[in-house]
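haha ok so turns out i had the wrong file open the whole time. this is the CORRECT one, sorry everyone. sequence first:
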Amino acid sequence: MLDVALSATAAWDDGTDWDRLASDAVTLALAEGGEGDWAAAPRAIEISLRLTDDDEVRTLNRDHRGKDRPTNVLSFPLDPLPAHPETHGPPVLLGDIVLARGVCETEAAMRDVALSAHVTHLCIHGTLHLIGYDHVDSTDAETMEALEIRIMRRLGLHDPYAKDD
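then structure:
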C-alpha cells in the first residue's frame, strides 16, 4: 500500500488532481526503480509531497544544500529501501519531495509541455532519488534518465530529456 501525503499551497489550487498524478508517478517509479514489487507490497510505503512556492524551496535549498536559489524539485530520503518488501512492520518512510510552483511553470513553458506532465516527471525523479538513484556522474545519470524516460512513456507522456532541434 502506498500513501503519498500531499500538502499544497494555494498557488497549486488550479483544479488539477495532484493527488492522483503524484500517486500514479510514484507508484510507477517504485515499481520500475525499486527491487521487488513495491507498488503491490502489502507493507505500507509513505512519501510526503509538498507543492509549494519558490521562496520556500529556496530556503530549503539554501539550508540543506548550500545553494541560495530555488530549484524545481528537492528530495529528502529518510529510511533506506529494503531489498524486498516485507509483509509486516511499520510503514517504510521513504522521505519528502518538494516542488516549487514558479520554477516548475517556467520549465514546463520552456519545454512546451503541460505543467501536469512536468510535475509528473519531477515526482518520478524525486522518488527515484528517495530509493537511491542519483545523477552525480554520467553513468548514474544515464541510468536514471533512461528509467525516467521509460516510466514517462508508460504514462503516455513526453521524453523529458529529448533535445529540441
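Residues 138-154 form the longest helix (17 residues).
again sry for the mixup
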